[in-house]
Amino acid sequence: MLRKQELRHIRHIRLRKNLSGTETKPRISFYRSIRFLYAQLIDDTKGHTLMAASTKDSSVQTSIQQGSLKCKEAGKALGSFLGKKMKEAGFTSCVFDRGGFQYHGVVKEFADAVRQEGVKF
Fold first, then answer.
1. Residue 116's pLDDT is what?
2. What does the pLDDT look like over 61-92, one tens digit per residue?
3. Which residues, 6 or more positions from 103, have their beta carbon under 8 angstroms from its beta carbon?
4. Which residues contact 21 (CB under 8 A, 6 or more apart)?
């Protein structure tokens, strides 16, 4: 029997078959651990990470209330922070890689916050 993490990894591989980021339209890779949220902007043609953000960053933590960093507010704060950084760098469109996680809750709040900053998926 497969564990939850192994099933998520299989879903992620299945998603990544069709997703690829370019220099003009990079891929946002999202990962949710038990304690923190991570997001990277990746150019798959060169294999470079263009920018990264996580809820460990002090600039993201200031906009989150005291308490759980895994809540929906943390996803919303991380998404708006990454969206602002992307707009400053000149990226207006991207491809969203949800990392095999179901598109609801924290993942949906993150994606909606990035979209509210003006970045299109």
1. 96
2. 776 666 555 688 899 999 999 999 999 999 99
3. 111
4. 27, 41, 42, 43, 44, 45, 94, 95
- Closest C-alpha to 98, from 26, 10, 12, 23: 12
- Name the domain count of the chain: 1
Look over the chain and give the mean of its residue pLDDT values, rounded to a whole number: 90
Look at residue 121 and tell me if it is in a domain. Answer: no
**CA–CA separation, 3 vs 47, rounded Å?**
29
Domain hosting 75: range is 4-116
Q: Does residue 90 lie within any of the structural domains?
A: yes
Whole-angstrom Cα distance, residue 91 to residue 9?
Answer: 28
Phi first, then psi: give them for residue 113, nearest 5 degrees: -65, -40
Residues linked to residue 48 through DSSP beta bridges, in sequence order? 43
Report the alpha-carbon distance of residue 21 to residue 3 in Å, rounded. 29
For residue 89, the model assigns a pLDDT of: 94
CA 56 to mean position of chain CA atoms: 14
CATH number of the domain bearing residue 61: 3.30.420.100
> Does 61 fall in a domain?
yes
In a domain, 48, yes or no: yes
